[in-house]
Design goal:
The chain has one domain. The protein is 59% helix and 1% strand. It contains 13 helices and 2 strands; from the N terminus they run H-H-H-E-H-H-H-H-E-H-H-H-H-H-H. Helix 1 packs across helix 3. The longest helix is centred in the middle third of the chain and has 29 residues. Bound molecules: zinc ion (2 copies). One zinc ion binds next to loops.
């Protein structure tokens, strides 16, 4: 970590170095390493187009610069004493437990922010001028995670400033959590299923509670297929971590739950999975009206 500077308080270039190191390492692991080392089951019906990975990796630099700028702003606001961030290490047991609660709160806030800003980005003028480049990948790769317009980055990352005014957050946790969300975004575009092992606290809790039957992902939590389908059906699936917003607001794709069940049912479910695949081919990604 010495090479990457202090976790918090190092300024813009330290923040940018941390983001580049985590983002491109995770992208390499998810896109190149894991599929070579393990048997992975694709959730896609198409292959990425030639040159797509390089293009997505390059386009991610803009949002990474924006995110480093957002963190520099957070550091400056904290220095001026206007946020609820706090410092101090190591934590007491009570403080450590509070940090776990903070992570869950940040997940719910992040998910809600992502859902509603994502729906806004599907409003035709914003979609055509800002969000469309992200949707050019109908078979996304891990490097598509932050491959979007810098203005979209400003909107998506604004919640990282807002949460500093909503609840007390340890400054180091704020940085570590938002570094980790880059990996969550990349995982959601990996093209193969990593649920139920998406390493969030909620997934861990679902696995522990599910015991041996925890191989099937918890229905309340997103799978990789969930966002992957958004790239084929842009009017469905706007959330990031959990399924409740899409379910409550009627934006969950009617084939989604059947396709997930089929995916995890093995060979017996391959026919149902093929049905989602056929539906995907019959209705290629298109957009135009408000979501
Ligand atoms: Zn996406
Ligand atoms: Zn979208």
């Amino acid at each position: 970590m010495a090479l990457l500077g202090p976790l918090y308080g190092g300024g813009f270039w330290v923040a940018f170095r941390q983001l580049v190191a985590v983002y491109y390492t995770a992208g390499f692991v998810l896109h190149y390493l894991v599929p070579r080392l393990f048997h992975v089951k694709s959730v896609q019906q198409r292959k990425p187009r030639p040159g797509q990975v390089a293009q997505e990796a390059l386009h991610s630099l803009g949002p990474l610069l924006v995110k480093a700028g957002v963190w520099t702003l957070v550091e400056e606001l904290h220095r001026r004493g206007s946020t609820k961030l706090y410092q101090g290490w190591p934590p007491t047991l009570q403080q450590a437990l509070y940090m776990l609660v903070t992570i869950v709160a940040l997940d719910y806030l992040h998910d809600a922010w992502f859902y509603w800003t994502h729906r806004l980005l599907h409003w035709k003028p914003l979609y055509m001028h800002i969000h469309l480049p992200h949707h050019r990948s109908t078979a996304p790769t891990a490097f598509c995670g932050y491959s979007f317009h810098p203005l979209e980055a400003l909107l998506v990352f604004a919640n990282e400033v807002l949460v500093c005014y909503l609840l007390p957050i340890h400054a180091g946790l704020h940085r570590a959590y938002h570094l980790f969300t880059t990996v969550i975004h990349e995982g959601g575009h990996a093209g193969y299923e990593i649920a139920p092992f998406i390493p969030s606290l909620e997934c861990l809790a679902a696995l522990l509670l599910g015991g041996a039957s925890g191989r099937r992902p918890c229905a309340a939590l997103n799978t990789v297929r969930h966002h992957d389908m958004h790239h084929r059906y842009p009017r469905s699936h706007f959330s990031l971590y959990m399924t409740h917003w899409d379910w409550l607001c009627g934006t969950e794709h009617p084939e989604y739950r059947r396709a997930v069940a089929a995916h995890f049912a093995g060979e017996a479910g391959s026919k149902a999975a093929a049905s989602e695949a056929a539906a995907g081919e019959a209705a290629p990604a298109r957009e135009g009206k408000a979501a």
